Amino acid sequence: MLYGSLRERSYSKLLTLEAARLLEAMGAEVKIFDPLDLPQPDAAPDSHPKVQELRALTRWSEAMVWCSPERHGAMTGIMKSQIDWIPLSEGAVRPTQGKTLAVMEVCGGSQSFNAVNQMRVLGRWMRMITIPNQSSVAKAFLEFEEDGRMKPSAYYDRVVDVMEELVKFTLLTRDVSPYLVDRYSERKESAAELSKRVNQRAL
Fold first, then answer.
1. Per the confidence metrics, is the pTM higher than 0.85?
2. Residue 154: pLDDT above 70?
3. How is residue 127 annotated by DSSP?
4. For residues 40 and 81, what is the distance between their CA atoms, to the nearest angstrom?
5. What are the backbone angles phi and psi of residue 63, rounded to the nearest 5°?
């Protein structure tokens, strides 16, 4: 699970924690990445400990939840930096390919969908199975108790719906995701490379 704010009282983090409780109640094992101290993309080597932690969690997960505040009508730079550090491929392995994805956002004012729409584009680009449902919490500062728990509301009910749908899609696609993301163009390329290697005249 990724969230996109470093504020001391981060509502994207509080929403992520609330979603994590729901996922655990549904039987999922949950790990949340803390973006504090993650360097900007390309400002540090891939060997940086926070980059390695993020990539290890990406490889480990079957599904992901991305939750960002909306700032200046878009996801935050912190959210985008995390996604930018996740490679499209590592050798022959695509860390995000075929994984399910749920997207959520928190708004300081009226409800908006700019951040979730942007994250959907990124999920598709990274060949993830982005579920149809999503959550956008308006005036998030009114939706959480002082202890950080989310108040009962239609917004909370939607978060439950989204997490439930994520679990369902993950279970439904768990054994078939390699088939769903298999591409003719890549099979063709692999066959050409194999032919070149097998038929080469010298090593």
1. yes
2. yes
3. T
4. 6
5. -140, 160
Structural contact between residues 1 and 61, judged by C-beta atoms closer than 8 angstroms? no
Say if residues 140 and 108 touch (Cβ distance below 8 Å). Answer: yes
Tell me, what DSSP letter sits at residue 73? T
β-partners of residue 67 are 3, 104
Q: List the structure tokens of 34.
A: 């803390």
CB 72 within 8 A of CB 115: no
Structure tokens of 55?
């990539």
Where along the chain do its domains lie?
2-198
91-98 mean pLDDT: 79
What single-letter DSSP state applies at residue 40?
Answer: P
Length of the chain: 203
C-beta neighbour count of 87 within 10 angstroms: 16
Q: Return the CATH number of 2-198, one of 3.40.630.30, 3.40.50.360, 3.90.550.10, 3.40.50.720.
A: 3.40.50.360
